[in-house]
Design goal:
By secondary structure, the protein is α/β, with parallel strands linked by helices. The protein has one domain: NAD(P)-binding Rossmann-like Domain (Rossmann fold). 41% of the residues lie in helices and 18% in strands. A seven-stranded parallel β-sheet has the order 3-2-1-4-5-6-7, sandwiched between helices. It is globular, with a radius of gyration of 16 Å. It starts with a strand and ends in an 8-residue tail after the last strand. Bound molecules: NADP nicotinamide-adenine-dinucleotide phosphate. NADP nicotinamide-adenine-dinucleotide phosphate is lined by residues 7, 9-13, 32, 55-57, 82-85, 109, 113, 134, 136, 178-179, 181-182, 184-187.
Length: 228
């Protein structure tokens, strides 16, 4: 298979991109900024591991990255957008004390960045393929807590964006996916699983070993329907 993973500098994106390459597939590993050492090492170790620079907030870079993937051999069997942020102020502040600059940053990367990925990469996914946007349970509109307000708003918007996209395309499956509470830099305070477990689950969804229920766009890494 040919798969793109967007946001591989660390955490789930790095683990998932390595897993896909280990399984013998081609993976376009989109990283932010200078190539991280782990990404360079993966590219040395696996012939199918192909780093591509891409900041999800930058449309010109999106066009360039999509062009590189397209020229390298055509369509993708799956695209997984993993890039996201949780700002430091959002970890500790309620909405009544929000740092508005950080709220804008969360929306810019988690929501606008996700829209840029849809706009510039949607045409690369093959008929019958899969487009997976890693969002969060925090984006649920019915299961609401007071923590992480900026992050939650940006992930709710990313969920809606993904649902709209799922209505827009019919040639392939589109999912918003909650990856679990993972032991990464972002999630370690509330972690329940390692990112490896989430990556294995996502891989099974990509490969078709795990089939999410029909007519569902919001799922978790085990392929189960999530509360919208
Ligand atoms: N961890 C959890 O428990 C949890 C729970 C629910 C949902 N999620 C979601 O799962 C995804 C992965 O989370 P994680 O725990 O692996 O977080 P992480 O370790 O913080 O990784 C996030 C990744 O996104 C990259 N990124 C940030 N801004 C970017 C940009 N503008 N363009 C491209 N890449 C960018 C980061 O690069 P840098 O490191 O260089 O900034 C990093 O590689 C996120 O979307 C997150 O919201 C995580």
């Amino acid at each position: 298979m040919r798969i793109a993973v967007i946001g591989v500098n660390q955490g789930l994106g790095l683990v998932l991109s390595r897993l896909i390459a280990e399984k013998g597939h081609t993976v376009y590993a989109a990283h932010l900024g200078k190539t991280p050492a782990e990404v360079s090492e993966a590219a040395k170790r696996f012939p199918g591991y192909k780093p591509v620079e891409f900041d999800v907030t930058n449309e010109a870079m999106a066009e360039t990255a999509a062009g590189i993937i397209s020229r390298d051999g055509g369509g993708l069997d799956a695209l997984v957008t993993v890039a996201g942020i949780l700002t430091d102020s959002d970890r500790t502040r309620l909405i009544t004390e929000a740092d508005i600059g950080d709220l804008r940053k969360a929306l810019e990367i988690n929501t606008v960045g996700a829209a840029i990925v849809i706009k510039h990469f949607h045409g690369l996914v093959k008929d019958g393929g899969k487009f997976i946007a890693v969002t969060s349970e925090a984006g649920s509109l019915t299961n609401i807590g007071e923590k992480y307000p900026g992050y939650s708003v940006s992930k709710a918007a990313q969920n809606k964006l993904t649902a709209i996209f799922a209505k827009t395309v019919s040639r392939y499956a589109v999912y918003a996916l909650h990856p679990g509470r993972m032991n990464t830099v972002m999630g370690r305070n509330d972690a329940q699983i390692e990112p490896e477990e989430s990556a294995e689950g996502i891989y099974k969804i990509i490969s078709g070993e795990k089939k999410p229920p029909a007519n569902t766009w919001f799922i978790n890494y085990r392929g189960e329907a999530m509360e919208i």
